[in-house]
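Reviewer 2 asked us to include a model.

Predict the structure of this chain.
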Amino acid sequence: MNDTSTGDCVPAHEEILTAINDRKTWEDRQTTWYQMRHDGLRRRRVPFPGAADLHYPLADTLIEKQKPGYIDQIFATDTVATFTALKQDWQKFSTGAAQWFDYQLKQNSNFEREIVIGADRMMQSGKCVLKVFWDAEQERVRFEAINPLHVIVPAWTGQVREADWIVHVQHYSKHAYRRLNPTNDPQGFDTKKETIDKLLTGTGADANSQENAKVQREGITKGGRDAQIVVWELFYRDERGQIRVRTYSPQLPRTQLRPEFGLPYTKGPFSDKLPPFPFFELNCETKDRGYYDSRGICERVAPFEAKLCKEWNAYSDWMTLWITPMFYAKNGVPNNANLRMVPGQIVPFELQAVQTPGTPPDIPASMLATRQTAQELVGTIDYGTPAQAAPKDRKTATETNLIGNVMAQSTGLRARIFRRELGHGFELAYAILLQYAATSLDYFYQDELQQLPELALQGKYRIELSGSGENNRAATTQRALALLQQFRGDPYIEQGELRKMVLEANDPRMVKRLFLNAGTQAAAQMEDQAQEITAMLIGFPSEVKQTDDHLAHLGSLFGFLERRMMTRQPIGPEMIVLAAQHATQHAQAAQQTAPEAWKQQAQQVTPKLRQLQQLAQAAQQQLAIQQQQQQQAAQMAAMAGGNPAGDFAQLLAA
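Predicted model (structure tokens):
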């Protein structure tokens, strides 16, 4: 291999081939799991022509059941990640940074598609490695969920981030490979015709090498088809611990396909003394420290699936043999050509039906028990089908709740493993965005165009997957409603955030559509009270509504009365009486609907309310005197021949 930075840190081609050979057993098992899930493990020998050859899709069913749970953890909240500022000065930017990062991942990358592929491969194979890199042509961050067979690491590797070196096996058609460097840039891929011909035919490779002869893997060391080119992208650490990238093909192990270069990323964790590789892994389980130790669902339920296939085929064979009635002639063997088994046919001789054995009842019950055992093993909740169980075997509500709690603990553990690894991937993606997308500060959040301050990208944050490991939305909503009921009106609980939590549990988009901030709500309530005051000034009583913020209404009403007193503007007795009645109704409603809030403000509100009620009593006496004087004036006018109704009409006309 032609290299410019040779040294002991560069793994030799033979070392990589040895790593491939060391994992052969793991490779063969992965092929089995793929076939088991997609094509099915067929019967090696059928007992008779036309016998059943069915495959029970147990592993595929369990994977499809669990896959939404992983994906819902990512997209159940309004942002995929939560940013926690590491310094107080950056705390004000954390929400905006999370929204900007969410926009970049959902709108400007292929994250949504690749993470679904990655979760599926993780559950099938036990592990999936995802690569994060910057696409210079499309100017966006990209993810690639790599087939586990196409990632080569030393046999002693634990986690991907701790590997000595990593090989990413890539595949190109000859046309796609030529497009990698159409201008023949010397810093790009070697796309000369003679090089492509050698890559396709293997001309120039060390074909006599013992290692090459011993290790031949289609799709890994050679193309699966004649027009397929296999490229190895080798990531390794140099003497200083920095990452370098070398590109070549196993067909031409002594020739570099492009000049070797150092990893170009320099922000975030890539600026550490020992930077990480641009890869992160998703593991289906954590039970040991080895890279190949994580088992997928296919491997864990393989014995159960084999048993289900055998029992299903046996049941189908029984139906094939016995579901069609069979007869025999009681008096010798006549000419069968004269016998036609059709409805209404008169048979020429006496027949006797062969007694068939009854339906084997143990096979369906055994299949159900096997399936439930496999589901309990992988932590998938299944309460069984009541119709298939005897009444004495049907689960009670208490038993069902206990099963749900146990399975929830298993689901929570898997979610914690998944969230931790995905958080590392978010850190890598954010670091790449800091380096290449720092000038693209505009983003859309909930259908609104916003802009992130430049200072926000200078802060350091801890990045974690948003939400929680709970993927049952109905259970999450029920738990949120229970918290709302328990802490409603609690002075030590932020009521606005409590209501936000309920809306987010149902649908994060509801927060924007339905939630009203405290300041906006208080302003709206004060405006409503101002309209009620205007009505009372002209003598109309105002109704107290159940939806009113009663304390806000009281504050607005008392504020109006205090301003009138300070400016020495007269307030009519009728207005004082109506205001006292209105304030009393609001105070009574506040004591019933918000007792905790009322206790906090009772010391301020009660003296003002009592003073207003005293003024109302004096105003009522004054109104009574005025009413009596008006009645006397009306009587005197009537005795003098006046017309009070006419006087009122003249008043309206004036």
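The two ends are 108 Å apart (CA to CA). The first helix runs from residue 13 to 22. We have added this to the supplementary material.
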